[in-house]
Amino acid sequence: MSRNLACIILAAGQSSRMTRSKIVLPWGESTVIGTIITSFHRAGIRQIVVVTGGYHELVENEVKRCGAQTVFNPEYANGEMSLSLQTGLGQLEVGYEGIFVALGDQPEIHPDDILGMIKVGEQNPQNLIIPSYAMRRGHPWLVPAQYFSEIRQLHTPDTMKTFIQRHEDEISYYVVKKSNILADLDTPEDYERYRPKAS
C-alpha cells in the first residue's frame, strides 16, 4: 500500500458523559480534534474528513480552522460507528488505496506511529492494520480500499465490531511506540487525567 491514503475521523458523538463537546476541549496549544488533524497532516495524509453529529456547528468551525473537511451524520444519535463511517466514505475523493479510521477523542496519536502503520500496510497491502498496546487493540485502523464496498453495505444488526470479527484472519498488528491508543476522553475525569499539563 502506498501513501495514497485518506483519513476519516469519527466525531459524531454527543459527549453525554462529558456534558460538553470533548472534541473542541483545549489540548496543549490546540484542541483535541486539532491535535488529531495535525498528527495526520504531519504523517502526510492529505484528505482528512471529520464526521460530525452532536455539537456539530461548534465542531465544524474548529475542524475547518484546522484545515480538514467536515460532513454531518444526521443519524448521529443512533450511536453506531458504521453509519458515521459510511457518511465519511461518501465524501472521499476517488482513487484512495486505503483510509485511516480514527476516533475524535483520542488526541494522543503520534505521527510516527501513523507512519509505522503505513509501513506495515505497505508490507501487507490486503490486510487491515490495527494498532495494539499491551495486547489490546486500539485506533486508528488502516483499512484497504477492497473493504470499502462491504463497509458501505453494513446495516443492523451488523456493526464495525462484526466487520472486524469477520476478517480476523486478515488483520496485521502494529505495536505502537509513542501513542496512547487506549485513552478515551469519555468523562471530565478522563480529560483531566490525560490532558497535557503545563511544564
| CATH top-level class | Alpha Beta
| Count of alpha/pi helices | 7
Question: What amount of the residues lies in strands?
Answer: 15-25%
Radius of gyration: 16 Å
Please give the largest β-sheet: 5 strands, mixed
CATH-derived architecture: Alpha-Beta Complex
Based on CA inertia axes, which overall geometry fits?
globular
Strand order of the largest sheet: 5-4-1-6-9
- Count the domains: 1
Structural commentary:
- With 199 residues, the chain is α/β, with parallel strands linked by helices.
- The chain contains 7 helices and 10 strands.
- Strands 5-4-1-6-9 form a 5-stranded mixed sheet, sandwiched between helices.
- A hairpin with a 2-residue loop joins strand 2 (26-27) and strand 3 (30-31).
- The mean pLDDT is 93.
Topology of this protein?
Blueprint: E1 5-11, E2 26-27, E3 30-31, H1 32-42, E4 48-52, H2 56-65, E5 69-72, H3 81-89, E6 98-103, H4 111-123, E7 128-133, E8 136-137, E9 141-144, H5 148-152, H6 160-166, E10 171-175, H7 188-194
Parallel strand pairs: 1-4, 1-6, 4-5, 7-10
Antiparallel strand pairs: 2-3, 6-9, 7-8
